């Protein structure tokens, strides 16, 4: 009921009951007044009926007008709600744009803060850009800034160094570009290449970088590649260890490589086995001593390969003369046992063909693997589709069975009702026939 209370709010239940009661009294009074008016005017029933129809028609028009006003009010409320919703959406979009703009401005400001350009003064005292730009974290020291944290140096648009800094020095992990365009990806210490990392050689002919090789640097000097530190290679320990004083042993023999980068297990010349971090220790490969083959590489330990005790049936030993006659080379062309240059292939075309063949085999293997994966995915999709179809069919079957059962129950109920109605009709008919017979018998007696 769209009626307001005393203070403009909606009516409570007591007010609604009182309002309904007043309306009933008014309607009863109107009927009494109408009867009194008909009695005084002496209207005919037809005239009274016509007047009543006119009153009802007027009441219907008033109700229609009221309904139209209600619909118009409802439509107005909906339009107002839509307008409020659109305004909220616009406000939300504006706030999102504003927030995004603030974030972009913050990023631009951060970039401006982190970007430092280097200038040199000419003879007139005017700064001229040198093309060197530093972008990254920094700290203030007195009235100047120094790199500290993560950043990069650019020279004429080309990144020269990208990595960690410590109070203006390259210190930590980083990537360095040499003047010959070789790339070092490894560790630095106090502005020097120091530790273990990957060295990518630049191919001047193709302009591309070769696959990186792990190597060791010590104070800007390349010591060796880690794949040169094979078991049996002898090294000279030339300085202090990374964590203490100088080693007592002048040298050591590599036994094997450990999991940590730059860590090796070695046998000291003075005796004893020790783990060394060659990324921190100063050393050099002793080329004057031939590489030895470790005995444990050929003599099985007890329990391995069916051996009852150590050295049961292993007779092979290292032969220096055989290594000199038939040198052994690594994948990179180094020869560990001889000063002879590595052999050059006489048939370069055959090598290229072999390389192409291996590449094709690899691509075919990848393609077969991808095809098998696609086939498995297809089979999974088919199995999933079949399972979904079977589930849908089972649901449809259950629904059909349930519908058939409900239909059978309805038929059975209808048949029972029909039988009951027929029995009732037959009972009434028999009762009526008996009554007629009784009445006919009484009439005959009379």
From TrEMBL:
<dbReference type="InterPro" id="IPR003409">
    <property type="entry name" value="MORN"/>
</dbReference>
<feature type="compositionally biased region" description="Basic and acidic residues">
    <location>
        <begin position="360"/>
        <end position="398"/>
    </location>
</feature>
<keyword id="KW-0677">Repeat</keyword>
<feature type="coiled-coil region">
    <location>
        <begin position="12"/>
        <end position="111"/>
    </location>
</feature>
<protein>
    <recommendedName>
        <fullName>MORN repeat-containing protein</fullName>
    </recommendedName>
</protein>
<dbReference type="Pfam" id="PF02493">
    <property type="entry name" value="MORN"/>
</dbReference>
<feature type="region of interest" description="Disordered">
    <location>
        <begin position="332"/>
        <end position="398"/>
    </location>
</feature>
<feature type="region of interest" description="Disordered">
    <location>
        <begin position="426"/>
        <end position="446"/>
    </location>
</feature>
<keyword id="KW-0175">Coiled coil</keyword>
């Amino acid at each position: 009921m769209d009626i307001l209370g005393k203070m403009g709010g909606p009516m409570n239940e007591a007010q609604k009951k009182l309002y309904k009661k007043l309306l009933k009294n008014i309607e009863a009074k109107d009927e009494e007044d109408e009867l009194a008016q008909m009695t005084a005017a002496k209207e005919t029933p037809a005239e009274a009926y016509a007047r009543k129809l006119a009153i009802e028609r007027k009441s219907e028009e008033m109700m229609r007008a009221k309904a139209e006003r209600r619909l118009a009010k409802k439509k107005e409320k909906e339009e107002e709600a839509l307008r409020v919703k659109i305004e909220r959406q616009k406000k939300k979009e504006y706030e999102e744009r504003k927030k995004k703009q603030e974030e972009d401005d913050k990023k631009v400001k951060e970039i401006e803060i982190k970007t430092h350009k280097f200038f040199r003064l000419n003879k007139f005292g005017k700064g001229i850009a040198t093309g060197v730009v530093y972008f990254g974290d920094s700290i203030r020291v007195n009235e100047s800034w120094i790199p500290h944290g993560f950043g990069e140096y650019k020279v004429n648009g080309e990144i020269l160094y990208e990595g960690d800094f410590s109070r203006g020095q390259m210190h930590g992990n980083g990537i360095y570009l040499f003047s010959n365009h070789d790339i070092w990806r490894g560790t630095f210490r106090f502005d020097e290449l120091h530790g273990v990392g990957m060295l990518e050689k630049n191919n001047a002919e193709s302009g591309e970088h070769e696959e990186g090789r792990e190597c060791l640097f010590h104070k800007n000097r390349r010591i060796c590649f880690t794949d040169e530190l094979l078991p049996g290679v002898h090294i000279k320990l030339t300085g202090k260890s990374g964590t203490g004083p100088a080693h007592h042993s002048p040298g050591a023999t590599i036994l094997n490589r450990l999991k940590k980068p730059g860590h090796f297990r070695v046998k000291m010349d003075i005796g004893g086995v020790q783990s060394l971090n060659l990324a921190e220790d100063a050393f050099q490969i002793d080329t004057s001593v031939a590489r030895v083959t470790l005995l444990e590489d050929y003599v099985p330990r007890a329990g391995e390969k069916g051996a009852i005790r150590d050295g049961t049936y292993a007779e092979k030993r290292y032969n220096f003369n055989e290594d000199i006659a038939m040198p052994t080379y690594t994948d990179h062309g180094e020869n560990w046992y001889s000063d002879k240059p590595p052999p050059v292939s006489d048939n370069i075309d055959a090598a290229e063909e072999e390389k192409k063949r291996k590449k094709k085999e690899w691509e075919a293997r990848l393609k077969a693997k991808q095809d098998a994966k696609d086939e498995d995915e297809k089979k999974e999709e088919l199995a999933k589709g079949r399972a979904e179809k079977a589930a849908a069919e089972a649901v449809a079957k259950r629904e059909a069975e349930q519908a058939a059962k409900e239909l059978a129950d309805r038929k059975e109920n209808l048949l029972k009702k029909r039988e009951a109605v027929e029995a009732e009709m037959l009972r009434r008919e028999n009762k009526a026939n008996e009554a007629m017979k009784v009445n006919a018998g009484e009439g005959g007696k009379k």
